[in-house]
Amino acid sequence: MVEQGDAAPLLRWAQGPAVSPPRAPELQARGRGRGWAGDARAPEEPGPPEVLLQPGRLELGDVEEDQVVAVFVVTFDPRSGNMVEWCLPQDIDLEGVEFKSMASGSHKIQSDFIYFRKGPFFGLACFANMPVESELERGARMKSVGILSPSYTLLYRYMHFLENQVRHQLETPGHYSHLAAFYEDKKGGLHAGPGRGGHLPPVYWLPSIHRYMYPEMKITHPAGCMSQFIKFFGEQILTLWKFALLRKRILIFSPPPVGVVCYRVYCCCCLANVSLPGIGGTIPESKPFFYVNVADIDSLEVEMSYVACTTEKIFEEKHELYDVYVDNQNVKTHHDHLQPLLKINNADREKYRRLTEQRQMLLYSQEVEGDYSPCEEDLFVLFFLEQNNRIFQTLLEVAASQDKTLTAEHARGMGLDPQGDRSFLLDLLEAYGIDVMLVIDNPCCP
User: What is the pLDDT of residues 176-196, one digit of tens each?
Assistant: First the structure.
């Protein structure tokens, strides 16, 4: 329960369009193996709908419905390439979905899942590749079955269903009755809510984070997602943290499978949670685009900030599309002024040491005491949330002071290296429009 004296009872990610309070307590009983990706069992029936609060308002806002706005089947035709072979509703615009739901290079793997964006919607597709004795199909049949929804946080519920359906489509092509029944049961009306112009639902970006929302976190990612993210990038997560906080355009390259890389997109976005009021109003919203391909180039060209992943190496040459390029564990930027942020400094090492130490203590308490609340994922998100809040709280206090002077002592108090993070601080002040004077000497200048 949130106490009335809480100065910031609603924590929202980058001033997002909606704030989600905790779901029903029944979610707390979910096992560790459940989450965004679903599990080996059939998906549960949806629980109570999420109540959304509009930022800056205390009255109830719109309800995020568990709605599916489209279901589709994509196939690879040896003569025509990727194509949508079936969909409901039949008049929905699915241009480009045939490439988003079957990533470039997928012919080399047996199965995968992909999160992506299509206009105002988020999509989830499950891909499978089955050997067949057919010269016409060149020995392999490849299909994806997917859905579109206004919110990606609910897509995980249908992972198992989609996996079963893509296998069904491979084994008995052309039979869509299960998918049609699913759509009729889950389809969402695109009706206008109060104060809306009316044809498209709101786009729900990253789920808002509240320190009492542990159950909510379980449904937005698979258990272990954040832990794998830390293990994969190591100290480099501090570099990604700085770029995410600066709302840079971050593109992650990886060959298929794509599913695990979509999780990295999500985790990278979670590094930049801020809960203080008044922060983020002057900076572009960072958007999880998930999987992108060459068909997305036009839309990426106009984005000021995003995090996405791709399997197409050609993106690396298109410097105008991104600020930060991540290839495996190699984080790089072509911007000279961002080069200093690539170097791990002593304050970064200290933060990583504290994160690792807290993680080990949590794992020990889980093993010895059997206490799984909070979990590793919550620790990760709250670690960076509190770090970000400390930085911006200090900056706001200095900006409100008489001399507006930010010193080396302030930097250390924020958990930053006065010298090593000088460039990062300058970029942060400029990006967020915070009016203070940095008086930390540049070691490169006499």
Answer: 999 999 999 998 754 433 333
